[in-house]
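FYI - complex with calcium ion, inputs then prediction.
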Amino acid sequence: MRILVVEDDPDLGRQLTQALTQAGYAVDLAADGEEGHYLGESEPYDAAVLDLGLPKMDGVRVLERWRSSGRGMPVLILTARDRWSEKVAGFDAGADDYLTKPFYTEELLARLRALLRRSAGHASATIELGDLRLDTRAGRASVNGEPVKLTALEYRVLSYLMHHQGRIVPRTELVEHIYDQDFDRDSNTIEVFIGRLRRKVGAGRILTERGLGYRLVDPRSDVALG
Ligand code: CA
């Protein structure tokens, strides 16, 4: 999962980037409204954290422009404590949730998890496929109750596939959602991650659809469906 953070306060921007990276996301940080607007238009984010008070273009305008050009990713806005009217303007512009500064990182992470889940159609913090479980709260996976040890990037790959289970995820889409902008992307390394994941969660769970991408399946019910 890849998150865009638009925040002009350098300390807060750094803290958010660090906390989100630790929580298992690929993160891009934009320090003003114009850059944030541009990134949100040009890169496929799973969610955005958007400060409203921004230089060059304010957050409400950024959000309005994303929405009017059809960018539908969940957006959590950050507002100043005494600016209730900002929240109203933010929701009217298409925000999905908000936090008032100052806030606890844990709350931000919990709200983001909820937004990501809901946008992928999952109601619970634990996403399951057969006996494969992804605990999005703890950032852990298990098979048949046994914990599976994953690297940060393996977790990102599995998390994206779990959130989008039931459909084929093209390799290019996977690449765009697990790396941040500065990462030297090599789509061949995806094959390596998929290979490692197959060894860890079971080879039959991640199918390669030739020329199309990957599909996460429950091997037992897949057999039943023939
Ligand atoms: Ca600000």
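The mean pLDDT is 92. The chain has nine helices and eleven strands.
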